[in-house]
Every structure is written in C-alpha cells, then in structure tokens.
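PROTOCOL LOG
Step 1. Enter all chains and additional molecules of the complex.
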Amino acid sequence: MCTYNTEKIQVAGSGKGAAGWFPLTDATVYFDHPVHAMAEHTLNIDFLNPGRGPAARVAVELTAESARALAAAIEAALGAVPPALIA
Amino acid sequence: MSEALTAQTVKITGFDGDEIEAYLAVPDDGAAARGSVVVIHHMPGYDSSTKEIVRKFAANGYAALMPNLYYRDAPGASSDDAAAAARAKGGVPDGQLVGDVRGAADYLRQLEDSNGKVGVIGYCSGGRQSFLAACSLKLDAAVDCYGACIVNPPPEGMPLKVTPIVGLAEDLSCPLLGLFGAEDKFPAPDETAALADALDEYGKVHEFHTYEGAGHAFFAVDRAAYRPEAATDGWQKIWDFYGRYLAS
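Step 2. Run joint prediction.
Step 3. Record the structure below.
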C-alpha cells in the first residue's frame, strides 16, 4: 500500500546528486513503493536540500533486510572509532 | 484499429484555478466523436509508465489526459523528485485532487471530437482517488485499480493523511469497475467486499473482479508485482466497461 509514513530529520553533511555535490539539510526515511528497485516495498532514504529545489536529492531504495544491515553497519562503524573523533 | 495517436504535454486549469501540467494523448483515427478518460497517476508520480497507460487509451480510441498531481510541489522536476517532494509535504489533499480531476474532465469535454462522456481511472492511491472523484463530480464511468483506504482506515500506528470515504458511496455518479488482487492486503478482499456491500445498499452499478495469484499493482509492467494474466484480463474488462459507458 501507499504508506505516507515518513520520518523526517535534519542532517548536516554533503551529498552527490545529478548536478554534483551539494550541502544536505534534511533527510526523509520511509517504507513504501520504490521507483526503481524490484520489490513491492522498500526502505527509502532521500537526502535533501529543499532550498535548492526538488532535484537536490540523493535517493536510495533498499530491501528491508538491506536497510537493517545498513543501520547496523553505520552503528558498527561509528562504534569502532575513538569517541573523541565524533564528539 | 491503427493505434496511431498524438501525445503532448499541455497546461490545464486545476484546483483553485491553478495552472498545472498534464499529459494528453488523442487517437489519430478520424472518429467524429469519442469518449475520454482522466488517468490518475499512482503515488510514485507522473512517470513514464503511467504516460504509457495514457497512450494506451489513445491507441484504443479514447482521448486521455493525466494531470500532474505533484506539479505545484515541483514544477519542471523529474517525476521521482516531484513525488519525493509531494510525499514530504504529506501527499495530495482530497479537495485538491477533485479540483484537478474536474479541470482535466472539463478540458477533455471541450475537445472538438469529444462525445461529452468522460471516465476516470486510477491505480494504487489513484484507485481511491478515482472513487473519490466519481463521488464528487459528474462522470460517466470510473475504474478503481486496487485503491486502499476507501472503507478501512489506515492500519493503526500509521500516520496516513487519508481517511475512509465509503460514506460517499451514495453520491457515486456513475458505474464503477473495481479490479483487485486476491493477495493484496491493502485493499484486502474483505475491504473490497465491504465496498461492494455499500454500493449495493444505494443501488449503485458496479462490477468487481478479484484475481487469484495477484497482489497490489498487478498492472505495473515494470514492477515485480506484474501479473500478466490478471493484467491482460483486467485490460479487457476495462475496454468492455468503457465501451459500454463511454461510447458515442
């Protein structure tokens, strides 16, 4: 189904989109129909800068299993570095 | 049938007088008068696969027009970026949808070779919106392809901004064709059966088909959900239905 269930967060960093690198301000995370991935539903993440228009977007569509693995990998990567580096 | 057609992007007047983009396809068959169809795109947006559906209607003798429901959120953007922008804003409000379909239907009725009859069809979220439009506007035939949240509210804990609209069934202005998958959970067969009951209560003409072995989005040829047997039969049901209610 079309869920519209969307988590929104503010982020700081950069992303590389169709027009090159740009600063990121927002991200949305939702589980819904993908545009491209061959699955009925996927965990979709949009890294955005709405101030630069709708094309300022880096998008990924991941299977639920892949998304959970990604979340664990992010935590593992951050957990493996000295806390002082990410303070 | 030659299947010759002309397709182009046009501007139409939608909800609240807004000028929005729309994709128009008309047959090049020389017919003096023809029926028309408003195509409501699915939640992923005003995309190439739905434009192909618009052209399919023209290839089969109908003028067809698809308003870009996300145009206000992202004019000129690619369909996937526009869909993401529209989603971030919470989707298309019901009143705006009705206004945009009204504008599209008016545009089609004003075409030189229109017979004055206009149908509507929608897929996924557009299935619910097709029913909504047919209960809100004077139309001649409506097709709901697996639209959810017509009878049941969204699952608990899911902050959907849509509400059930089965209460509008009394106002349905035209016959309704429903095409559903037996394995779909949204809408599941019990929800579509409840919709049929509501339509029976008000004596509304409807024809529902539920395909075994098919789930949500079985018409989508570029998706893993595509089920060629259900889709092929579903298209035939659409041609039969529109042939009855939109013909000159």
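Step 4. Note key features.
Chain A has a mean pLDDT of 92.
Chain A has one domain: 6-86.
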